[in-house]
User: Fold this.
Amino acid sequence: MDWVHSAQGARNHICGLEWSMYEGDIEEALRRFNGDRNGGNVAEKKDSEGRYLLWEGIDEAASLRIIEMIVQQAPDVLKEADSEYGQLALARAITEGHPDVNVLQLLATQYPAACTHRDRKGRTPMDILEEQKERNPSFYTDDRYEKVCKILQRK
Assistant:
């Protein structure tokens, strides 16, 4: 990471990595470009398509630790909807089938309004969960489904 000299450069570097294999590099970039120094906050930078690092982390099934670091550094990103579906991070994590239910818990706890936010199709995260359970019953087992339902109903 010595060649990365800006938050945008760090963001681009992170998105080129296999998240599960390079967790240490990603943590280093998040610590190094945290908005207090070195030209900006990597967690707030977007790519050329307007995607925040949080959304990339969700799509790449980043660990709870990485998602926590991103949310801590850029909590307002939780309130931003993606340009494609109008989904917030919580709905995106359900749509993408993030493997760690604790990530869903974190996203719901940090921004409770996400539990009732409707995307461009008028769907709430609960509606999306129902659709995903029908599409992928082997991933959304009864146990997992019930855990996610409880998270969404706590608001």
About this structure: Residues 1-78 form one domain. The two ends are 39 Å apart (CA to CA). Helices lie at 7-15, 23-32, 53-59, 64-73, 89-96, 101-110, 125-135, 142-154. The chain has a mean pLDDT of 81.
